[in-house]
């Protein structure tokens, strides 16, 4: 139970039991811009269940495999531009994805606005401490109760982030409004740049709660409040000043990529007559 509780908060875990929301892609208008947000692959701190916001750690081998698989699954999509934050785990995930897609001579842009939430004095400490603190600030019994709310999508992203900010003994952890301001600016920058360059499809690697914050206000789908697994995809479509979010926490790209690579491996190892 403890490990499942630890995995509950998207920013903290390597994997979660969240059921992803997925709807079949709807043909978009010719002048629309689509941004595919990908959460980074599993990291060292994810695997040791430590808080990781602005503190960074490299991808584990499992995390590299995740990035490779999702890259294979996204191979059918032609991306015009690429973004990540300045965090190493996001850069590395983007590099592996593009390497798997066969993209060369790309010029990624780093936006600090795509960083994960800054968790103040919780950074680097056990996830359990931050979960317990957030639960207390919300008046909940314990971290287990907090996890039940998160899993059900009953606790909105703003309440999650503000509960952590309130519980931070240093008083430095970001509030929801601070995170929303910078992530919204990052999204606007990507859209403005795409319009200026005539780009239609954008790939952006970020982190769990940062992506959830971007979705806040763009969709009423309650799945926006649920934790995102490592390498999950969120699809945001911009058209005529309006946003839609047709895919939330989609793991099918990773699954399809993994299946395709396994098939290729079997074909390569099959005896020839």
UniProtKB/TrEMBL annotation:
<feature type="signal peptide">
    <location>
        <begin position="1"/>
        <end position="20"/>
    </location>
</feature>
<dbReference type="GO" id="GO:0005829">
    <property type="term" value="C:cytosol"/>
</dbReference>
<keyword id="KW-0378">Hydrolase</keyword>
<dbReference type="InterPro" id="IPR013078">
    <property type="entry name" value="His_Pase_superF_clade-1"/>
</dbReference>
<dbReference type="InterPro" id="IPR029033">
    <property type="entry name" value="His_PPase_superfam"/>
</dbReference>
<dbReference type="GO" id="GO:0043456">
    <property type="term" value="P:regulation of pentose-phosphate shunt"/>
</dbReference>
<feature type="active site" description="Proton donor/acceptor">
    <location>
        <position position="116"/>
    </location>
</feature>
<keyword id="KW-0732">Signal</keyword>
<feature type="active site" description="Tele-phosphohistidine intermediate">
    <location>
        <position position="40"/>
    </location>
</feature>
<protein>
    <submittedName>
        <fullName>Histidine phosphatase family protein</fullName>
    </submittedName>
</protein>
<dbReference type="GO" id="GO:0045820">
    <property type="term" value="P:negative regulation of glycolytic process"/>
</dbReference>
<dbReference type="GO" id="GO:0004331">
    <property type="term" value="F:fructose-2,6-bisphosphate 2-phosphatase activity"/>
</dbReference>
<dbReference type="InterPro" id="IPR051695">
    <property type="entry name" value="Phosphoglycerate_Mutase"/>
</dbReference>
<feature type="binding site">
    <location>
        <begin position="39"/>
        <end position="46"/>
    </location>
    <ligand>
        <name>substrate</name>
    </ligand>
</feature>
<feature type="binding site">
    <location>
        <position position="89"/>
    </location>
    <ligand>
        <name>substrate</name>
    </ligand>
</feature>
<dbReference type="Pfam" id="PF00300">
    <property type="entry name" value="His_Phos_1"/>
</dbReference>
């Amino acid at each position: 139970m403890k490990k499942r509780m630890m995995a509950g908060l998207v920013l903290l875990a390597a994997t979660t039991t969240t059921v992803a929301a997925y709807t079949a892609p709807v043909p978009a208008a010719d002048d629309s811009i689509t941004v595919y947000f990908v959460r980074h692959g599993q990291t060292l701190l994810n695997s040791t269940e430590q808080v990781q916001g602005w503190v960074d750690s490299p991808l584990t081998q499992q995390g590299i495999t995740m990035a490779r698989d999702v890259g294979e699954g996204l191979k059918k999509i032609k991306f015009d531009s690429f973004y990540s934050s300045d965090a190493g785990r996001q850069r590395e995930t983007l590099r592996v994805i593009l390497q798997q897609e066969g993209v060369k001579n790309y010029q990624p842009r780093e936006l600090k606005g795509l960083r994960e939430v800054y968790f103040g004095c919780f950074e680097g400490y056990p996830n359990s401490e931050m979960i317990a603190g957030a639960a207390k600030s919300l008046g909940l019994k314990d971290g287990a109760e907090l996890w039940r709310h998160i899993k059900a999508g009953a606790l909105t992203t703003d309440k999650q982030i503000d509960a952590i900010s309130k519980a931070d003994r240093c008083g430095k952890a970001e509030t929801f409004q601070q995170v929303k301001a910078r992530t919204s600016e990052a999204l606007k920058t990507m859209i403005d740049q795409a319009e200026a360059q005539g780009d239609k499809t954008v790939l952006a690697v970020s982190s769990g709660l940062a992506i959830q914050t971007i979705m806040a206000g763009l969709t009423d789908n309650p799945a926006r409040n649920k934790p995102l697994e490592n390498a999950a995809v969120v699809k945001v479509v911009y058209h005529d000043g309006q946003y839609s979010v047709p895919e939330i926490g989609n793991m099918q790209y990773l699954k399809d990529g993994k299946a395709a690579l396994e098939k290729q491996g079997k074909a390569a190892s099959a005896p020839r007559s």
